[in-house]
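Practice problem: predict the structure.
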Amino acid sequence: MTATPIRLLLVDDDPLVRAGLALMIGGAGDIEVVGEAADGAEAEELVRRTRPDVVLMDIRMPAVDGITATRRLRARPDAPQVVVLTTFHADEQVLHAMRAGAAGFVLKDTPPAEIVDAVRRVAAGDPVLSPAVTRQLMRHAAGTGADARQARARERLAVLGEREREVAVAVGRGLANARIAAELFLSVATVKAHVSRILAKLGLDNRVQIALLVYDAGLLDGDGDGEGGGAGADGF
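Answer:
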């Protein structure tokens, strides 16, 4: 029995970029490009019509930009996963997109095979962002309104129980579920359950957003070692 293809929507204001992406991804037998949009407003309409599993979203676009569009799409009941396209690793706009609910990002000059892999991974529920890159982004944003941001973050985290808070901090350090389980003497299944409850209580979309909130709250002693993390199912 053939698996259902991943439904992908491409969003970029440059038609040549869209054409290149469509050509590049079209060769993957398990991914179907169901539409192309030139800006965020058009993307919202196409999402309603085509119901994609994943949206590959440019950040900088006229009219409705990628960050605004990501926030709106992730608020939908049938929200698709969003991977943002960017030119720079440590771009403040990327950080804003993560806070808006994007599951990760890829650079526009990323090799085709890696872009295809990113689409597959987010479709499977695995955010595409390594702990090292997350820390780089957070350091890039540090210092701007830090005190107010820390107060807001700590207030939000106050709803968590003690064990949930420990798990949240471990996620912020970039640890994999297995590593968190070993450190906190829990089963991997229990860690996953805690992560699910943390996301629900805080109204967040993914582990990257947990990490950002923990960082904002000032709960990380250092940059975190990220050992055992990575961007796969057990990492961010």
